[in-house]
Design brief:
- Helix 6 packs across helix 7.
- By secondary structure, this protein is of the alpha/beta class.
- It is 26% helix and 23% strand.
- About 3% of the residues have low confidence.
- Bound molecules: alpha-D-galactopyranose.
- The site of alpha-D-galactopyranose has 10 residues, from loops.
Amino acid sequence: MKIQLLFIAYLFCFTTIKAQKYEGLALTPPMGWNSWNTFQTNISDKLVREIADEMVSSGMKDAGYIYLVLDDGWMAKERDSNGNLVPDPKKFPGGIKVLIDYVHSKGLKFGLYNCAGTKTCAGYPGTRGYEYHDARFYASLGIDYLKYDWCNTEGINAKEAYTTMSNALHIAGRPIVFSLCEWGNNKPWEWAQNVGELWRTTGDITAKFDGILDHGTWKQLGVMPIADLQNGLRKYAGPGHWNDPDMLEVGNGMTVNEDRAHFSLWSILAAPLIAGNDLRKMSKETIEILTNKEVIAIDQDKAGMEGYKYKVKDSLEIWVRPLSEGDWAFCFLNRSISQKNIDFNWQSDVIFDTVSKRELNTKTNIYKLRDLWLKKDVGTTKKPLKAIIPAHDVLILRLSTKL
Ligand code: GLA
């Protein structure tokens, strides 16, 4: 009897610790929009409805941006007497459920934000100690995505905290994409594959190309420092579990060239494409970048093999990504502040990717080249490639064996 009880107790402990996420979610990197990068906590019912409308009318939804995620600042400062989270009554006078229904009525999905700590980063009620309660609450609201942050966690164990919330969401019975946001501090790539669908790999992004914004106690990173920090992580990513180098800053103040480079690199990195700009005020160029279906197709490639920096010479970087059906993405990035001429001989390199075990052999195979920003076929790998790349810009090609 004692042994049986011990065995049951063991089974109970084992099943509560083991991660159990919903299978089949985010088989390609999630795409959507999040309020934080532009609005921080200045969010409202009106804003969400207008953004949902824009996601549809601007062509974002058609391009694949499906999740509308409200970040920090959606809650009132206290839970109610039943322990439920309360949407801020000033920002959301009709509550949050009507808004979720509105977003769903547009054919979009809805996401919310909370934090593993006692309070969110902006000081609203955190989930610590309320994991199962909050998961039931989210499922009852009908949300589809939860971003789960890491402020005010006072030394708790990250793997355990995220696993507890993952299990709570699973038991709540609704498929909810679980986005881990602990900034890469505890190497989530090593343990989160069965915990959530995406995990942040770094601190917060800022709309700068190649710099850092130092706030003293914390730093925000530009596009290039974040891209550099992805080195070595690609072997952990794949369908249903993605490295997340943070949300997009396209349309938030960088030059068009820089926005194009940022978007191209995120697609090479198989990054979640979560726009963070004010969709109601997009320039023609911003829309063109965010909805470029050929670049998005690189990001969303169903094989889900993340790309990498293959070579660097004099601030000219070459990033590559193996794609399904033998194709490759090939991206020349000019990281310098002056334009560069390239004269690239395809016969000079054979690339062997040790992670995917795929070979790009332009000596023995001829590939068709497609320029994904010009949206034009530009010859084959038989001839050397000559091009001019402006400062902080890219030339991204799709190499295809189908001539
Ligand atoms: C952290 C996250 C950001 C954002 C803010 C909200 O900094 O990394 O993405 O969610 O919190 O307070």
